[in-house]
Amino acid sequence: MLAKKMEAPKDMQIGSIFETKRHGSVAVIEYYNTHTVIISFENTGNIRCTTAAKLRNGQVTDRSVPAQSSMVGKQFESLKHGLLTVKQVDSGSIVVLEDENGAEVRLILAAVQKLRERVEEDSDTNEELELPTSLSALTKRNKKTKDVNSLLKKMITDYGQ
Questions:
Q1: Where are the beta strands (DSSP E) in the chain?
Q2: Buried (b) or exposed (e) across 89-99, using 16+ Cβ within 10 A?
Q3: Which CATH architecture has domain 1-65?
Q4: Which tens digit of pLDDT belongs to each residue from 7-28?
């Protein structure tokens, strides 16, 4: 069943261009309502449906593009090779990187993901501890609290067995 077309807001007119956070520009093809906006990705031509809120925030992803391609251009520090820049991701889960001297280095995707995780961990430990400024900030749980709570819960449930 097709939704009944509504009058589009000024920013959602047919042909309006929006920038996404990861997949370039998109153009509005049809506007039915705030929950149903048909868009086309300009770089791939892929057509899909999204909501007006996601479109305005740039949170639309192009499903025809492999997820690994978002790694292109990222830099990672390797103990063996130094600073590496991702040049391309092959379909066979091989990542082509370039070191500081311009030499090509090939690694499997899992090894590059470990490098990325290590970089993210280092950035987390380097950040200063932010003190909460409000009651709602005090009640928020971070990832470490959730991990500790789940580990403690598992220990308690396994204790009687």
A1: 17-19, 25-33, 36-41, 47-50, 75-78, 82-89, 94-98, 104-108
A2: beeeeebebbe
A3: Beta Barrel (2.40)
A4: 778 888 999 999 988 778 899 9
Q: What does the pLDDT look like over 116-155, one tens digit per residue?
A: 777 666 655 555 556 666 656 655 566 666 677 777 788 8
Question: Two tokens at 104?
Answer: 């090509």
Q: Which residue has the tokens 């959602």?
A: 12
SS3 category, 45: coil
CB 62 within 8 A of CB 44: yes
CATH 2.40.10 residue spans of the chain: 1-65, 69-125
User: Considering the domain 69-125, what is its CATH architecture?
Assistant: Beta Barrel (2.40)
